[in-house]
Amino acid sequence: MEKIMMTTPVVEMDGDEMTRVIWQIIKDELILPFVDLKTEYYDLGLEHRDETDDQVTVDAAMAAKKLGVAVKCATITPNGARMEEYKLKKLYKSPNATIRALMDGTVFRAPILVSGIDPYVRTWKKPITMARHAYGDVYKNSEMRIEGPGKAEIVFTDENGNETRNLIHEFDGPGIVQGIHNLDASIESFARACMTYALEQKQDLWFSTKDTISKVYDDRFKTVFEKIYEEEFREKFEQNGNTYFYTLIDDAVARVIRSEGGFVWALKNYDGDVMSDMMATAFGSLAMMTSVLVSPDGKYEYEAAHGTVQRHYYKHLKGEETSTNSVATIFAWSGALRKRGELDGNTGLVSFADRLESAVLNTIAGGEMTGDLAAISTLPSVKKLSTLQFILAVRNNME
Ligand code: NAP
Ligand code: MG
Fold this sequence. Notes:
By secondary structure, the chain is of the alpha/beta class. The chain contains 14 helices and 16 strands. The protein folds into three domains: 1-107 and 298-399, Isopropylmalate Dehydrogenase; 118-140 and 182-283, Isopropylmalate Dehydrogenase (3-Layer(aba) Sandwich), CATH 3.40.718.10; 142-179, no CATH class. It has helices spanning 17-31, 46-51, 55-67, 80-85, 95-103, 184-201, 217-239, 249-258, 269-282, 310-317, 327-344, 347-365, 371-374, 387-398; strands at residues 10-14, 39-43, 69-72, 106-111, 128-132, 142-146, 150-157, 163-171, 175-179, 204-208, 244-246, 263-267, 289-294, 300-304, 368-369, 383-384. The strands form four sheets. The protein has a ten-stranded mixed beta sheet, sandwiched between helices. It has a two-stranded antiparallel ribbon with strand order 6-9. The chain has a two-stranded antiparallel ribbon with strand order 7-8. The chain is globular and about 75 Å long.
C-alpha cells in the first residue's frame, strides 16, 4: 500500500514513563506503516529537559508557534520526589504551563464517546467540550490571615500615585481576606479562542459566571465575551446555525446535565478546574479525554488529558504486563495529523486521521479494550487486552 505523503512537519514533543512507551508503539504500529511521517522532534522527557536546563521545552513551544500544529506526549511535572528520583538540577515548571504561557493558549478538553462505555448522564449523546480560562483569579491570589479586629481594604495606586480604596470588611474578630485579579487582554484572548474553536467545530458556545453576585469582576468577563461576539463572531456563528449562549453558572450546571451535549462550555479558571474533572468522570474515564491547546492566532497543540501513568510504568519496568489505555494519545496524534492535513489541503492525511479514529472506536465497540474500560463496559462480552495487544488490535482493524 502506498504511504500518505506530508508536506509540512508536525512538531513532535516526546514525554515520560508509560506514555513514552506507548508513544513509540503508536508511531511504529499505527502511523509509520501508513504515513510518510514528517515531524520536528523535541525530547521533553525529564532527563533531556534537565540536560538542556528546560530550554528544549521553550524551543518546542516556539516550533509549535512557527509550524502551527504540535502533538505532545504526557510529561512529568517535577516535585520533590522526582527531583530525588532523576537527580535534577532544579525543580522545573510544568512543561504544559510553559507551553501554554508562550502560546497564550486556551485548553479545550473533549471526551471520546464510544458505544459500550456509557456516560453516567443518560441524556448525553454527544461530547461536551470544556474550555477553561488559564490565567489569574484564585490561581494568582494574595491572601492574608487577619488575627484580630481592624479594617481590611482594597487599595489601587495608579501611575501618578492616586489611590482608590474599597472597604472589604471591618473585622471585629479574626478572619481571612483574599485579593485576586484578571486582565482585559487575557479575557479577550480567552473569548476569541473559545469563539474560534466553537466556530470551527460548528457548535454552540456556552459561557457562565456569577455576574449577579460579582457585579464588577464577573460582569467584566460577561461584557468582554458579549462585545467580542457581537463585533467579530455573531455573523459567522449564524451562518453555521450556531449561537453564543450566556447564563449564570448554577443555571448552566443544571442545563448541562439535562442537555444531550454537542457544545463548547467556557468557564473561568476555578469553575473550569472543578467542572472538567467532574465532566471527565461523568463521561466515563480520564483515559478517554483529549486535550488541545489553541492560541488566539490559531496554533494547535494536541495531547491526552491524563498524566504519564507512573504506576503502570513501574510495573512495566519490572517486566509485568500492563493494560494501559492508549486511546487519548492515539487521538492526540490523529487530531494533529487531521489539523495538519486541513491546513495543508492534504485530504489523504485528513482521511487517514478519520480512519485511525474509526479503527480505535470499532475495536472497543467490538469488545476489545484495556482494563480500565473493560471494568466499566456495558457490552455483553468483553476481552481485556494488554497495552501492546490493544494497539495491535487497532492496527488489525485498520488493515
Ligand atoms: P495519571 O498519569 O493521569 O494517572 C493516574 C491514574 O489514573 C493511574 O494510576 C491510572 O489508575 C489511571 N490512568 C490514567 N491514565 C490512564 C490510562 N491511559 N490508562 C489506564 N489508566 C489510566 O496521573 P498521576 O499518576 O497523578 O501522574 C503521573 C505523572 O503525570 C506525574 O508526574 C504528573 O506530573 C504527570 N502529569 C502530566 C500531565 C500532562 O503532561 N498533561 C497531566 C497530569 C499529570 P490505576 O493506577 O488505578 O490503573
Ligand atoms: Mg483539577
